[in-house]
Amino acid sequence: MEHNILIDKIKRSNSLPEDALTYLSSIGKVIKIKKGENLIIPGKPISKSYFVTEGCMRAYCMNKDAKEHTLQFAIKEWWISDFIALYNHEPSSLTVESITDATLIEFDFKDLEKGFKLFPEFESFQRKNLERHVVSVHKRILNQLQLSAAERYELFLKEYPDIEKMISNYHIASYLGITQQSLSRIRVENSKK
């Protein structure tokens, strides 16, 4: 069933041959993790990428003062990993943790790369995913530089509808680059509108 979520997503955005879909299903391992469990730990080598079928994940780093900076949330039908470490073959600089109990499909990167060679259409599909990811990251950087905290919060709610039910204020504030107190003020101001 978990593989069907991924296959359905692929079919909505791209037409891969049936043997490519079968290969993808064969290399994905369904895993269930508990809230608070870490998939990726800083300093460790990684070779896996994850597709979320249920729950909510978060990727974050810590600065020298031990302050957390959330880089990404991953909800149903989103991918998550430390992509810098994965593609550069270096130890992770991120922590990827489960914010809720979650179900994921785990892929070994070597198996995905083999699939790219076997099925050129799959490589094209993955390239499009990476292009969307790069655009998303660049938009996020520009938003952090150009928008007010209130505007970033509004965009966050559009990008992640219903996520507030799953995560703490601390995680949202960390993602927006603001304090929890600032987030509370923004919410109070929004409620008056």
CATH superfamily of one domain: Jelly Rolls
Radius of gyration: 18 Å
Q: Indicate the overall shape.
A: globular
In CATH, the topology of one domain is named: Jelly Rolls
- The secondary-structure element order is HHEEEEEEHEEHHHHH
Q: Number of DSSP strands?
A: 8
Straight-line N-to-C gap: 43 Å
Indicate the mean pLDDT.
90
Given this structure, which CATH class of one domain is correct? Mainly Beta
Strand order of the largest sheet: 1-8-3-6
Query: Architecture of one domain in CATH?
Result: Sandwich
Beta-strand percent range: 15-25%
Protein name: Crp/Fnr family transcriptional regulator
Organism: Flammeovirga agarivorans
Pfam family, one: cNMP_binding
InterPro entries: cNMP-bd_dom (IPR000595), cNMP-bd_dom_sf (IPR018490), RmlC-like_jellyroll (IPR014710)
Structure summary:
It comes from Flammeovirga agarivorans. With 193 residues, the protein is of the alpha+beta class.
Structure explained in plain terms:
By secondary structure, this protein is an alpha+beta fold. It has a domain at about 1-120: Jelly Rolls, CATH 2.60.120.10. It has helices at about 1-15, 20-25, 85-90, 110-120, 120-145, 150-160, 170-175, 180-190, and strands spanning about 30-35, 40, 50-55, 55-60, 70-75, 80, 95-100, 100-110. The strands form two sheets. The chain has a four-stranded antiparallel beta sheet. The protein has a four-stranded antiparallel beta sheet with strand order 2-7-4-5. A hairpin with a 5-residue loop joins strand 4 (about 55-60) and strand 5. Helix 7 crosses helix 8 (about 180-190). The longest helix is centred in the C-terminal third of the chain and has 27 residues, at about 120-145. This is Crp/Fnr family transcriptional regulator.
